[in-house]
Amino acid sequence: MTGIPIDKINGRAVYVAGNDIDTDRIIPARYLKCVTFDELGPALFYDVRFNEDGTSRNHVLDRPEYAGAEILISDNNFGCGSSREHAPQAIGKFGFKAIIAGSFAEIFHGNCTTLGIPCVVMAQEQRERLAQLLAQDPTLDLTIDLAARQVTCANMIFPVTMKDSVRDAFLAATYDPLDNLLTGREAIDATAERLGYA
Amino acid sequence: MGRNLYQKVWDDHVVRQLDNGQYQLFIALHLIHEVTSPQAFGMLADKKLKVAYPARTFATVDHIIPTDNQSRPLADDMAEKMIQVLSDATSEHGIEYFPPSSGAQGIVHVVGPELGLTQPGMTICCGDSHTSTHGAFGCIALGIGTSQVRDVLASQTLAMDPLKVRRITVTGKLATGVTAKDVILHIIATLGVNGGVGFAYEYAGPVIENMTMEERMTVCNMSIEGGARCGYINPDETTFEFLRGRERVPSGSDFDQALTRWKGYASDVDAEFDDEVIIDGSRIAPTVTWGVTPGQAISIEGSVPDPEAVSGLDRDLINDALGYMKLKANQPIKGTRINVAFIGSCTNGRLSDFRAVAGLLNGHRIADHVRAIAVPGSEKVDAAARAEGLPEIFEAAGFEWRLPGCSMCLAMNPDKLVGDEVCASSSNRNFQGRQGSPTGRTILMSPIMVAAAAIRGEVADAREVFGLEEIAS
Q: What is the side-by-side strand order in the sheet with B14-17?
């Protein structure tokens, strides 16, 4: 067991609209010049949040009513493009604990899972309804219940989906697979031997 | 019932099933570079872990290395530090490292195949999404994040769920002036940038079978841009001939033995697929992007789409792209003025790419307002190009011939767009800000189309610029 079990995520949410939001947009390449991930939080979505002279573009992430939001909502194919783990690292360091989207790019989804950031899928109609609620009242609290596969907000229930193996990994705190992988050393060596890789 | 290549390679490399239902997959070849891998060594140190199979990992530097002056220390302190961390980690853990001036440095996805490290039937990983390139040899080749780089270093395995497999059959014959790049841009535009989510792509059919290994790499390279986690092509005689005699490929009777094994990985004739798509290759035109995803691509003869023709998020997406690209709905893409031309990257930075362009450049000169660079994908590509006199041809046409690296594909090095410059680029991504300026604009196309655009100073049809005649079949 590597981390702590994650079954519910509770907090305020912010909706960053758009399909195909790629990892270059989430964290521009110039911020990949680092040998640790520690300083990435402020660079999240930098080029859509700030002009080249550093002045704010009043992006939704910088609006006071969404300050401190812990759940990120977006649309389809979120996190496409580069495999850079800097993207989920920046999202986590910025303060987000989970992501709700229409769909996720796979490498990004895998990176988030390993880092303990659940990615849950919600249908468009439901996302629109949820976004509408949040636009009316940004102070609303959301709860993502992984076991029940649902999000609750203002006494309303929004169904979400998540692959069984991923959900189970969060509930059992095995989302970081390394310890589990390492227990297989004998089987690993046997496989290497069998394939001529030893 | 037969199995497809993905299933065979997967079955061979499964170590065991994990408690959560995922599988532990042995990784035959692990490639690392200076951007996404140094942090993984830090994670190993935190856990006091060693590298399990150091002989199965190879390192080089590509993303941040400048292409004009590579003398050390690099002018950029952080770039220098990243290279140093990688270099130190590889010597500490006994990993083979190909640094600049070793004769083998280059873009990691150019280096693996040209050394013969990439071989059919392997599982291959690298902390880079374009690892899918290696699928051209009949491999399961996966881009991974840094924590997974850590997993592979520590255990030589990954926790994975199996993918579904979609066979994409490209029928017919490509028209003159239509290249592998056009084929993959066309496939992505047809199936969408998230059409491949959950799938491995098998590329098949006469168009694919007739491609050289370098062309096949161009196709597989951009699988990830179509949302597929990986893409592959069944190994055949073209594959085996490419590999024969390469530095890290077995020779003599060992080669014959390997050959028998490699042949066995190809999809069986009665293999089943989770999905099948057929694309008519003879209808593919030279293809260019107009927007900010690789799927926003059209024929060179086409016009930019009209957002009014669609609704909802699709309309928002087109409006957003048109606004960013400063293009108008329904305008022809041909004639769009460019400022920069870039030929290189893991998609199109191999010897055949530069040969194809050099064969057409004779007597041409790039437009006065265009800045053009040609960046070989590796030191071996550079050396081979020099031996054939290619740099002189590029320079005579007004291109700069640079040192090997990722260069302007992702602009983590000094090669960047300035302001809202438009770049005709042979690379793989046209995302907003991708080429180093937050307002820079990228139009993806094949190397010969980049050359045509550089000469005309605007997006142009290579068939017209170079007088390519349709060859009667």
A: B14-17, B23-26, B157-160
Q: Which of B182, B218, B173 is nearest to B461 (CA)?
A: B182
Contact yes or no for B437/B146 (Cβ under 8 A): no
Side chain identity, residue B427: S
Distance between CA atoms of residues B469 and B25, nearest Å: 49
Q: How far apart are the first and last CA of chain A?
A: 28
Task: Point out which residues pair with B25 in neighbouring strands.
Answer: B14, B158
CATH top-level class for B286-465? alpha beta
Question: How many Å apart are CA A54 and CA A32, to the nearest integer?
Answer: 19
Min Cα–Cα distance to chain A from B321, Å:
11
Looking at domain B5-275, which CATH architecture does it have? 2-Layer Sandwich (3.30)
What string of DSSP letters covers chain A? --S----EEEE-EEE---SS-BHHHHS-GGGG--SSSTT-GGGTTHHHHB-TTS-B---GGGSGGGTT--EEE--TTBTBS---THHHHHHHHHT--EEEES-B-HHHHHHHHHHT--EEE--HHHHHHHHHHHHH-TT--EEEETTTTEEEETTEEEE-B--HHHHHHHHTT-SS-HHHHHTTHHHHHHHHHHHT--
Q: Cα–Cα distance between A171 and B429 in angstroms, integer? A: 37
Residue range(s) in chain B whose domain bears CATH number 3.30.499.10 = 5-275, 286-465
B289 token code pair:
């992007």
Q: Which of residues 154-173 of B touch A (CB under 8 A)?
A: 154-159, 161
Question: How far does Cα B307 stand from its chain's mean position?
Answer: 30
Backbone angles phi, psi at B224, to 5 degrees: -65, -30
Looking from the CA of A148 toward its CB, the CA atoms found within 13 Å total 11
Q: What is residue B276's DSSP assignment?
A: E
Q: pLDDT, tens digit, for every residue of B51-93?
A: 999 999 999 999 999 999 999 999 999 999 999 999 999 999 9
pLDDT digits (tens, 9 = 90+) for B289-331: 999 999 999 999 999 999 999 988 889 999 999 999 999 999 9
Task: Find out whether B191 and B276 touch, Cβ atoms under 8 Å.
Answer: no
Alpha helices for B192-331 (secondary structure H): 206-209, 213-221, 237-243, 253-265, 312-325
Best mutation site among A82, A108, A166 for testing chain B: the one with the most B CBs within 10 Å? Answer: A82
Gap from A47 CA to chain B (nearest CA, Å):
6
Kindly state whether B53 is in contact with chain A, defined as any CB-CB distance less than 8 angstroms: yes
Can you tell me the distance from the alpha carbon of B289 to that of B381, in angstroms, rounded to the nearest whole number?
A: 27
For the record, the structure tokens of A195 come out as: 């394939």
CATH of the domain spanning A8-195: 3.20.19.10
Q: Which of A25, A55, A57, A83 to mutate to test the interface with B (most CBs of B within 10 A)?
A: A83
- Between CA B217 and CA B352 the distance in angstroms is 12
Burial class (CB in 10 A: 0-12, 13-18, 19+), A143: middle
- Asked whether the beta carbons of A180 and A174 are under 8 A apart, the reply is yes
pTM metric for this prediction: 0.97
How large is the ipTM? 0.95
Residue with the bigger pLDDT between A88 and A36: it is A88
